[in-house]
Design the sequence.
């Protein structure tokens, strides 16, 4: 299987990466170079094994479905790029530009 | 050295000052080795003074009292930045501390600085750091290995006796081999990952560098054990890894897997390994040839699974809650500009690769298949260990430290991990210790053990270190 430049753009969109269009052919070539080495796996008979779902002798340990309170040494607004009234502030989505006039 | 500090033979303030002065002497910062990204001189001396006061008050010394340590810069600390070698986290100071740091401080260790690394632990040479490469203290024209190159370099340069790094595919063992120090990857789940910035969550483990096997054993014993903040950490009891210090290897069976000694292996590295195997025999061990037949599938398997997990773990770096945020007119543009400006080329490449192998239409062929092959690789180890072998011995890396800039092809760089990734895929413990030199450059020998049997691994390492003596550094 080889990655096309269109697929590189699609994958970059999924990954929320903005790529320089001039670099896309190089990136596609690099990915294809790497993926060529992975083709060997398609020839391996794995009909008698399932995929690994837990690591180690006992697998992944389970825990009670509840969280621990993470103790923070400083408040979020000490490290967040922008906050307002305990919310992380971000630029508006382009599809919501019309709402800009209604914001407080 | 760690023992001298902890016993009070060397006062805490003196040992910390010596570490800071040594860091200046070897130019550990960007002027020279570029091993240290940040230092906390005032905090370190304050901690040392606190330990001295406890001694004066008659408190029983803690196991690492006054021992200076450094931490890889993907381990969260409260008083120094945690950048992960990346522009996207440049200057970011974590609001919480990693469990391993809390445990080191409770044992009296003094954290003096954070070390350089390949960006987000993606690399095998520390050349992928956004803050410039680290240089090997034994030959500054060469790499220290990676991704924990800064930590390895600090131990090799004599700045600290113990350093923490992290492993996903060999990033403690390989730089240990390149720098002539001891490097340990524990069993997956042995050490808490709380506060370790995630690269690949099913592979990551915090590891320990030591100037000697004893330093590494002390370090690992301090940080290991169940942590309620890491649900993947194991409650298997932590034994005293130092207990094997004086023991020989009578009754121990060591396997020599043929796949790790290919025809293409550098003859001089093979000779150092053969000498180490002879030493293990002389200590009473039985050495047996074994086979791990799926070894050659490890690199393609790893380089599907690790980037796949990384693409998920690094999705959080988007400029919303912490770290770098690029100026942008809209939300989508903010995400894309933040991430494309904040991540370097190798991280970008692996995120793209990981996203691709997880995407619709490719998931079964790549990711699911790789996880199935991973089971075959893990089963190879289980079968050999179930067959009466206690440990495996192999070279740690196929080469000695290579020159800076020598490897430009990504896959060629990935092959540096060819002997180390299998232990991460299977979750077993492994460690590297010096076994000799080639053209003055260190060679590492690797020991691998069954899950949670670090004790036997250390026992053999202690014995081998004792027997090789100075020959391990010639």
Sequence:
């Amino acid at each position: 299987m080889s990655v096309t430049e269109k697929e590189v753009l699609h994958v970059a969109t999924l990954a929320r990466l903005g790529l320089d269009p001039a670099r896309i052919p190089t990136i596609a070539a690099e990915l294809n170079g790497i993926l060529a080495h992975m083709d060997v796996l398609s020839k391996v008979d794995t009909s008698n094994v399932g995929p690994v779902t837990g690591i180690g002798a006992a697998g992944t340990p389970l825990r009670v479905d509840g969280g621990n309170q993470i103790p923070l040494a400083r408040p979020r607004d000490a490290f967040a790029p922008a906050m307002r009234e305990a919310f992380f502030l971000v630029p508006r989505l382009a599809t919501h530009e019309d709402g800009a006039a209604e914001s407080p | 050295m760690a023992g001298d500090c902890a016993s009070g033979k060397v006062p805490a303030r003196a040992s910390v000052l010596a570490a800071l002065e040594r860091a200046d002497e070897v130019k550990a910062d960007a002027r020279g080795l570029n091993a240290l990204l940040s230092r906390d001189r005032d905090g370190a001396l304050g901690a040392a003074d606190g330990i001295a006061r406890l001694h004066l008050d008659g408190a029983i010394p803690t196991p690492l009292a006054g021992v200076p340590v450094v931490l890889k810069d993907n381990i969260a600390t409260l008083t120094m930045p945690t950048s992960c070698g990346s522009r996207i986290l440049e200057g970011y100071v974590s609001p919480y501390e990693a469990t391993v740091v809390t445990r080191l401080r409770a044992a009296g260790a003094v954290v003096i600085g954070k070390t350089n690394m390949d960006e987000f632990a993606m690399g095998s040479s520390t050349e992928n750091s956004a803050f410039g490469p680290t240089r090997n203290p034994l030959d500054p024209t060469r790499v220290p290995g990676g991704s924990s190159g800064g930590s390895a370099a600090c131990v090799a340069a004599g700045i600290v006796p113990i350093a923490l790094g992290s492993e996903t595919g060999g990033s403690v063992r390989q730089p240990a081999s390149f720098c002539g120090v001891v490097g340990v990857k524990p069993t997956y789940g042995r050490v808490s990952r709380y506060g370790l910035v995630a690269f690949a969550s099913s592979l990551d483990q915090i590891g320990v560098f030591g100037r000697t096997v004893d330093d590494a054993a002390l370090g690992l014993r301090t940080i290991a054990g169940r942590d309620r903040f890491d649900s993947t950490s194991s409650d298997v009891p932590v034994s005293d890894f130092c207990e094997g210090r004086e023991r020989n290897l009578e009754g121990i069976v060591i396997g020599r897997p043929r796949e790790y000694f290919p025809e293409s292996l550098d003859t001089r590295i093979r000779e150092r390994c053969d000498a180490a195997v002879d030493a293990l025999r002389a200590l009473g061990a039985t050495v047996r040839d074994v086979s791990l037949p799926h070894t050659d599938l490890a690199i393609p398997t790893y380089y599907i699974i690790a980037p796949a997990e990384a693409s998920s773990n690094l999705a959080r770096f988007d400029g919303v809650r912490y770290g770098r945020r690029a100026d942008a007119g809209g939300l989508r543009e903010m995400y894309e500009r933040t991430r494309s400006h904040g991540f370097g080329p190798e991280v970008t490449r692996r995120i793209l690769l990981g996203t691709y192998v997880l995407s619709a239409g490719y998931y079964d062929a790549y990711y699911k298949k790789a996880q199935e092959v991973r089971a075959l690789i893990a089963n190879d180890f289980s079968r050999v260990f179930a067959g009466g072998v206690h440990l495996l011995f192999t070279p740690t890396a196929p080469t000695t430290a290579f020159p800076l800039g020598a490897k430009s092809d990504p896959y060629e760089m990935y092959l540096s991990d060819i002997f180390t990734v299998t232990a991460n895929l299977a979750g077993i413990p492994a460690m590297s210790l010096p076994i000799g030199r080639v053209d003055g450059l260190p060679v590492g020998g690797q020991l691998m053990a069954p899950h949670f049997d670090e004790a036997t691994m250390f026992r053999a390492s202690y014995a081998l270190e004792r027997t090789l003596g100075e020959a391990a550094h010639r």
About this structure: Chain B touches chain A through 77 residues (CB under 8 Å). The domain at 2-244 of chain B is CATH 3.90.1300.10 (Amidase signature (AS) enzymes). The first strand of chain B starts at residue 36 and ends at 39. The two ends of chain B are 21 Å apart (CA to CA).
